[in-house]
């Protein structure tokens, strides 16, 4: 009996000891936070959740050293979905989100990677060819651009690069799609298709989509280059695909526009024009806009492929439409730039130049477009009035990219140009070994472009600027953070 009582007393003591340990553990638990996303561009909205803090205390949420929000923990020392935003001024690179108890040094930190990716030919599916997040290059410093690296392919590079998550994707007429390290230009992988490639890769959800003159659209694993699927059309796929809402839209020289399931490659619908289609689609507000060699611009229902309207120009429409503020802008071989009502197709204005192969870019109420007369034009987006023009010595087939007050465009005179977006003044140029028909991409303070000299180029600022950003990317000391006393506390729900 005595032995039984001793065992019972021992068990009770052990249970009490475990409970005490649990309480001690809770009392001394290290705080931690989780972020709803790990990366994104400036202005990204981030939800921050935390645990292990003291109960019923104020916690300041910082992005870098800037106090973005004040939350109050619940009775268990947790909070959920505190809303903050990456500042527009946040430079590309690693930044830190900190949750710090007010009037205490108890806190936790997690990194957030700021990236200004250029993922498709048009930048995004609607096709403005503008990177609105670029905050490194501007008209004042772009004159200091220098060659960071170049990568030699086996043939000329007409394809436009995509820059996503530290990798550059580009196609070459040596029949290969390349993935290059964005910082060094080192080849990470390549994939060989059955013919030349002019198509610009589009990257979405870890997949690279690219067309080939072997009549196929390919879907490749963005990290490894492994083929996920391919879809065979009846003609060359030289156009650049657009990806929106889980659907890949692409044209073929078999006269068709296709909509494919982005995950499986299954055809959802196709629309047949009366001639080949070289223009790359733009997708906006549930409508696909595309040009054709039958001289028409088409608006198709993005879900069904039903034609909503078409507008007839006087020549082939190889230029790819862009859509901005309810207006479709596009060039034609008849030497005209058109502005059409996106809902009805009605002509709003037109501007006459020479044959237009280049696709427009639209930023801050201005349309930028090149012409075969060797000129880059800036037109008032509302009226079509000429604001300025810049003349190169050869046709401008390259489509302009616009970022932070600078227009980047290539020319058949072998040069890559950077122009002041407001005035048209030349601020920088670089001479390659051949035509620059590739359209540039601007991402994370670097300009990427291909040339018919068989190279892919990357241009950036001197290393000194990057070093400053590296230093700012170190986690701030908790003791250095100062709360914004004007913030009003709120109580996020303790359960999702």
Return the average pLDDT rounded to an integer. Answer: 92
Strand content: 35-45%
Count of discrete domains: 2
Radius of gyration: 27 Å
DSSP strand count = 40
Q: How is the main sheet built?
A: 5 strands, mixed
CATH topology of the largest domain: Methylamine Dehydrogenase, Chain H
Helix content: under 10%
> Looking across the biggest beta sheet, what order are the strands in?
2-8-7-4-5
Under the CATH scheme, the architecture of the largest domain is 7 Propeller
- Put simply, the count of helices is 2
Structural class: mainly beta
Shape: globular
Question: Features of this protein?
Answer:
four-stranded antiparallel beta sheet; globular; Immunoglobulin-like; five-stranded mixed beta sheet; 2 domains; 496 residues; Methylamine Dehydrogenase, Chain H; mainly beta; disordered N terminus
Please outline the helices and strands.
Elements: H1 2-27, E1 32-35, E2 39-40, E3 45-51, E4 58-63, E5 66-72, E6 79-85, E7 93-101, E8 107-114, E9 146-152, E10 162-164, E11 167-171, E12 176-181, E13 187-192, E14 202-204, E15 207-211, E16 216-221, E17 227-232, E18 242-244, E19 247-251, E20 256-261, E21 267-272, E22 282-284, E23 287-291, E24 296-301, E25 307-312, E26 322-324, E27 327-331, E28 336-341, E29 347-352, E30 361-363, E31 366-370, E32 375-380, E33 386-391, E34 401-403, E35 406-410, E36 415-420, E37 426-431, E38 441-443, E39 446-450, E40 455-460, H2 463-472
């Amino acid at each position: 009996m005595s032995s039984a009582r001793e065992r019972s007393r021992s068990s009770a003591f052990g249970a009490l000891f475990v409970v005490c340990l649990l309480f001690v553990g809770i009392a001394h638990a290290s705080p931690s936070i989780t972020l709803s996303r790990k990366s994104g561009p400036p202005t990204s909205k981030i939800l921050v959740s935390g645990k292990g803090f003291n109960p019923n205390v104020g916690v300041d949420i910082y992005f870098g050293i800037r106090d973005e929000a004040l939350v109050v923990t619940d009775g268990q020392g947790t909070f959920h979905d505190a809303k903050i935003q990456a500042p527009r001024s946040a430079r590309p690179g690693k930044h830190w989100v900190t949750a710090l108890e007010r009037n205490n040094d108890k806190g936790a930190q997690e990194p957030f990677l700021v990236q200004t990716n250029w993922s498709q030919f048009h930048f995004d599916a609607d096709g403005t060819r503008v990177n609105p997040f670029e905050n490194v290059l501007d008209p004042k410093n772009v004159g200091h651009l220098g060659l960071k690296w170049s990568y030699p392919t086996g043939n000329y590079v007409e394809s436009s690069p995509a820059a996503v998550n530290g990798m550059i994707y580009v196609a070459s007429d040596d029949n290969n799609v390349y993935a290059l390290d964005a910082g060094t230009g080192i080849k990470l992988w390549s994939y060989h298709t059955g013919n030349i490639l002019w198509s610009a890769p589009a990257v979405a959800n870890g997949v690279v989509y690219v067309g080939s003159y072997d009549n196929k659209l390919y879907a490749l694993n963005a990290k490894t280059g492994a083929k996920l699927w391919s879809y065979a059309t009846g003609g060359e796929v030289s156009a650049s695909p657009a990806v929106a809402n889980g659907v890949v839209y692409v044209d073929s020289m078999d006269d068709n526009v296709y909509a494919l399931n982005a995950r499986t490659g299954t055809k959802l619908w196709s629309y047949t024009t009366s001639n080949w289609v070289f223009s790359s689609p733009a997708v906006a507000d549930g409508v696909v806009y595309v040009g054709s060699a039958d001289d028409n611009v088409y608006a198709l229902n993005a879900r069904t492929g039903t034609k909503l309207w078409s507008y007839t120009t006087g020549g082939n429409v190889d230029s790819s439409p862009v859509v901005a503020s309810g207006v479709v802008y596009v060039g034609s071989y008849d030497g005209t730039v058109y502005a059409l009502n996106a809902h009805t197709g009605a002509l709003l204005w037109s501007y006459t130049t020479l044959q237009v192969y280049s696709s427009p870019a639209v930023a801050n109420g201005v349309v930028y477009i090149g012409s075969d007369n060797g000129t880059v034009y800036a037109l008032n987006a509302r009226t079509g009035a000429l604001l300025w023009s810049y003349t190169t010595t050869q046709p401008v087939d390259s489509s302009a990219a616009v970022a932070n007050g600078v227009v980047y465009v290539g020319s058949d005179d072998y040069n890559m140009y950077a122009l002041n977006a407001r005035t048209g003044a030349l601020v920088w140029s670089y001479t390659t070994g051949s035509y620059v028909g590739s359209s540039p991409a601007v991402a994370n303070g670097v300009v990427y472009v291909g040339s018919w000299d068989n190279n892919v180029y990357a241009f950036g600022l001197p290393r000194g600027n990057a070093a400053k950003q590296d230093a700012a990317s170190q986690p701030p000391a908790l003791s250095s953070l100062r709360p914004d006393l004007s913030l009003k506390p709120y109580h996020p729900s303790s359960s999702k």
